[in-house]
Structures are given as structure tokens and as C-alpha cells.
Amino acid sequence: MSRPTYQRIADELRRRIIAGDYGPGDRLPSRQALATEFDVGPRIAADAVQQLVAEGYVVSRTGSGSYVRPKPPLRRLTRSWYREARDGSPFRADMAAQAVRGGWESTSQPVPASENIAHRLAIGAGDEVMRTHYTFTGDDEPVMLSTSYEPLEITRGTEIVLPEDGIHAGRGVVERMRVIGHEITHASEIVTARTASAEEADRLRIARGAVVMVIRRTYSTTDRPVETADIVVPTDRYELAYTIPVGRD
């Protein structure tokens, strides 16, 4: 089955943007010019441009035209649980250090642990966990996603059962777990890369199929894991900087 005509036009415009024929901030040809170039009607040309808007390659300005979306500045995330223990929310601290207003939106609900999450938390498959979806923002623009899981067997009935509700809302995992007597001693992270899902691309306002880093992070006490999370970071917005303490022991 052949692709719809507007998608073939979008493919060619996308290719030109990636190749640098149209640079960040450049105005695309008008829809009438595109219709003439590709020998289609203006509606089909408009649909092609709208496809690129939906993918995050282009922004439309009423009365002005459509422009290649400028690349956001590359920012740094410092990955250090020692820093997180001192500063509360590590994300907000990193944003403040770069003169960016950091924030987030979240939703939490108890769910049965999948086999993968159960393995990471050393609990039984199907045991209840508190799952929290986060969209992190910098100056009100979405910049990072996270889905965290905490075993309800240790947080149920406590004042930290909901990570973003109550007097400890907005604190880091290290501080919150300390409130209920669980002293986090170490964190592990596994970093991989893949293409963003359609949902992730829409939430982050990036191009569908864009490459993202995925950080699989787990916080543990000396006895057990107490939180695990999947963090999704667009590669064109962030670089990761790891601080690793070095001592004699």
C-alpha cells in the first residue's frame, strides 16, 4: 500500500530539515509554493506541514508561516546520589544551577508490580507498588519523563505513601525514605538508548522516532531496594554527568 501523498511530502521536508537544507529558525516555503512544487492541492501541502508540526520539527506562527523548530540548549544532569541527599530534589537543583526554573507534574496510583519491576524491587510479582508518572519541565517546557515505583509494603499508611502529596512532597527519594526509617546507602543506574514511543514524543514535544536515553535507576538501603524508576531523557536536550566518589576503601 502506497503512503498518502501528504506523508510523502512530509518525508521530503523532514529529509531537508535533517540534512540542514532548512536550518533552525528558517521559514519553510509557503503552502502554495509547496503545492506548486509537488503538484498537489494546498490542502495536501498544509497536511504535510501539520505532520511535521505534530512531530516537533516545525512550529507554525499565525499570519507568519511555518518555521524549523530551533534546537533547545544542551543542559547537564548531574547523576550523584550524594548530591541528591544534600539538596532534596536533584532535578530542581540542577535546573537552578543553570538558571532554569525547574518543576514537574505527576500522577500516582497503586498498581500490581510487573515481573520486571518486582525483580528490580526484590518483591513478588503482583505485589502492590505506588506508581508515579512524572513530566519534568524547565521554564515550563517538558524536558524529561520518569515513572517511579515504590513498594507499598514499606510505605502504606505512612506520611510518604504519595510521593508528591503531603508535607514531604517535592523532596528527593533519599529524604522521603529517611522519614520512615529507611536510610538509602547506594543507587545503581543502567543507561541505554532507544527511539521514543509516540506517547513519549508527544509528552516531550519531540519528533516521533527521536532517540532518547533511558536511565533505569534503583535506590537501595543495606537490606533492600526501596524505589526504582525509568527516566526518559531526550538526547538533544541533556547530557549526563556522573560524580563518582573515590576513596581508599
Automatic annotation (TrEMBL):
The keyword Lipid metabolism does not apply. Gene3D superfamilies: Chorismate lyase-like, Winged helix-like DNA-binding domain superfamily/Winged helix DNA-binding domain. GO terms for molecular function: DNA binding; DNA-binding transcription factor activity. InterPro entries: Bact_HTH_transcr_reg, Chorismate_lyase_/UTRA_dom_sf, Tscrpt_reg_HTH_GntR, UTRA, WH-like_DNA-bd_sf, WH_DNA-bd_sf. Residues 3-71 form the HTH gntR-type domain. GO terms for biological process: negative regulation of DNA-templated transcription. CDD domains: WHTH_GntR. Keywords: DNA-binding, Transcription, Transcription regulation. Pfam families: GntR (PF00392), UTRA (PF07702). This is Transcriptional regulator, GntR family. It comes from Marinactinospora thermotolerans DSM 45154.
